[in-house]
Amino acid sequence: MIAATPEPPYLAVIFTSQRTESDQGYGAMAERMVELAQVQPGFLGVESARDGEGFGLTGSYWRDEASISAWKANAEHAVAQRLGWDQWYAAFHLRVCRVEREYGMGGR
Predict the structure, then answer these.
(1) What's 86's domain CATH number?
(2) Does residue 34 lie in a domain region?
(3) Taking the complete model, does pTM exceed 0.90, yes or no?
């Protein structure tokens, strides 16, 4: 689903990853992280997709740097981050971007 973000500017955290082959609770944790992010102050929305070979792309949208920092420091999120390093990801990159403009059609 396409996130219903406000008028820019706002921040985007783009997380690209290559999964390992074993699930080891990944699916349940990914669902929990979306639930948890949705109640964080400054959270604006999320979009995510993964292909059949385990490559994934998740964009989360935030009001400001303080909101992103608070999310990164969340204790439950920290557990998920550690499991990502140890079990779930063969590789990943995280990028923080400032959204200056957006346009599109439908889909919200």
Answers:
(1) 3.30.70.100
(2) yes
(3) yes
